[in-house]
Structure formats: structure tokens, C-alpha cells
Amino acid sequence: MVESLAGLAGGLWSLESPAFDKGGEIPSIGVFIIAINPAFFGENYLERIDSHVQVLEREHGVYIPGRQREIKNDIKVDEQLYEQLLASIQAAELVPVQGVIGDD
């Protein structure tokens, strides 16, 4: 449904669009924006949806975009995998060697 609405904006469908991650063509995707007044759904809609979202987050671990997550500073990675990732980053020139965290 979302793709069909974006197509109304004149962009290509996802299967017609060039790849985002390779090649030199612009993907030419469509953007469809819709604004909905929550009051249309009733007086207490915002309270109801807020309560529902809190339950989803608290009891089901659903990430709610825009809310802060705990930032982890340490991630355990196998040494061999780390070396492969580091080599890939350096080969792709994504960051300079000194910019890689943990590389002394």
C-alpha cells in the first residue's frame, strides 16, 4: 500500500528502480506525504495510542522511532571478524585508519 501511494508521486516502483548501493543512476523513488489530524479519530485517541505504544515498548520490546535507546559503548566481536571488517572499511576508504574505534 505504501509503495502504491509513493508511486502516485511519479516515482518508479521498487522493482523498477536502480539499486541504491551500486551504479551511477538515481533511484527516482517517489515520496508521498499525508497529514492526518488525530482529533478525527476521537477525543482520547492520543491518550489511547500513547498507552498502546507504551505497552508495546515495555512488554514486547518494540522500538519506537524517536525515543532514546540505551547506547552501548562496547560490542564484543570475534577478533577474526573484526580484522575482516577493518580491512573492508580501509579498502573501501570509508574512514581513515586512525578513525576506527579500537585501532591504536
Automatic annotation (TrEMBL):
InterPro entries: Mal/L-sulf/L-lact_DH-like_ah, Mal/L-sulf/L-lact_DH-like_NADP, Mal/L-sulfo/L-lacto_DH-like_sf. This is Oxidoreductase.
